[in-house]
Design goal:
The structure is a single chain. The protein has 302 residues and is mainly α. The protein is built from 16 helices and no strands. Helix 3 packs across helix 15 (269-295), helix 5 (90-126) runs antiparallel to helix 6 (128-143) and helix 8 (161-171) crosses helix 12 (216-239). It is elongated, with a radius of gyration of 24 Å.
Length: 302
């Protein structure tokens, strides 16, 4: 009997190989690799992430350590990105600042995505009064510019990394909610969902095990753009002095020094390098999002 089962399995595998059948995930991965710009962006982003989270391996300076004898030094062999008004190494602060900026971006995007998935799933699958209430709240949230609301809330709360994550994550969920709701509206009338309902499976099982996996692909591109939006939001709040408090380095509060006309004109390295890292990171994330969107396009995969 074991031999018969083994032969059956081998026969099925041979048949699939003969038909050259590939899973949708493998097809999407192969399509992503053909997107040269997205692949290049992935490599550059990986370098930035490794350099930021492995900062102690690449610099011996303390990001908070002051050296009044080395103030306003030009970029050179000793300080590749120069020093700031307190003699702190700008390269060191840029790398350590990347930790906070990337952490805020990833955490805030994860929070907003989680909220969006929960509300979008309930709205799209349940329908009725739940759908109406959730979508009206979503419409109201999307009516106001998110940055204005974030500025207001941030100004009324205590500064800190956790508060910035909560503020951004709690206000960036409406686009994800609308996306997930649209996917569930198209999925809940599919045969496999109707069959699960006929079998009497609880709604939470149908939502999580049968519908949610089919939402992951279109959601991946949205998540990548949510990360870039969260990084920009943190940079904007910190630039205005109501985000992550000084002296904790982030790309946003390092660029805050550009508000000083003297620094803006005479010491551009103090703000240009964190601004450049922010620009490159946002571009890389957006290019990766474009690659994911094209790779998981159902029409292209089919």
């Amino acid at each position: 009997m074991p031999e018969t089962g083994s032969r059956t399995t081998d026969t099925k595998a041979d048949a699939l190989n003969a038909l050259n059948v590939e899973s949708p995930g493998r097809i999407a991965f192969r399509r992503f690799l053909r997107h040269r710009l997205a692949v290049a962006a992935s490599v550059v982003l990986a370098v930035i992430v490794i350099a930021s989270f492995g900062a102690p391996l690449f610099t011996a300076y303390d990001p908070l350590g002051m050296d009044l004898g080395s103030m306003y030094q030009d970029p050179g062999p000793q300080h590749f990105f120069g020093t700031d008004e307190m003699g702190r190494d700008v390269l060191t602060r840029t790398l350590y600042g990347g930790r906070i900026s990337l952490l805020v971006g990833l955490s805030a995007a994860a929070l907003s995505t989680l909220i969006g998935i929960i509300l979008g799933s309930i709205s799209g699958y349940r329908g009725g009064a739940a759908d109406m209430i959730i979508m009206r709240i979503t419409d109201v949230m999307m009516t106001f510019p998110p940055l204005i609301i974030m500025l207001t809330v941030a100004a009324l709360t205590e500064q800190g990394v956790l508060n910035v994550i909560l503020i951004i994550g709690a206000l960036r969920w409406p686009p994800t909610t609308r996306l997930v709701r649209g996917q569930y509206l198209s999925l809940k009338n599919q045969e496999f969902v109707l069959a699960a309902q006929t079998l009497g499976l609880p709604d939470r099982i149908i939502i999580l095990r049968h519908c949610l996996p089919n939402v992951v692909a279109p959601l991946m591109a949205r998540v990548s753009f949510a990360v870039s939006a969260a990084i920009l939001s943190e940079a904007g709040l910190s630039f205005l002095g109501i985000g992550v408090p000084l002296p904790i380095p982030t790309w946003g509060n390092m660029m805050q020094q550009a508000r000083n006309l003297n620094v803006l004109s005479n010491y551009p390295w103090m703000w240009a390098f964190p601004a450049l890292f922010t620009l490159i990171t946002i571009l890389c994330i957006n290019f990766i999002g474009d690659g994911l969107r094209d790779a998981f396009d159902p029409q292209q995969i089919m």
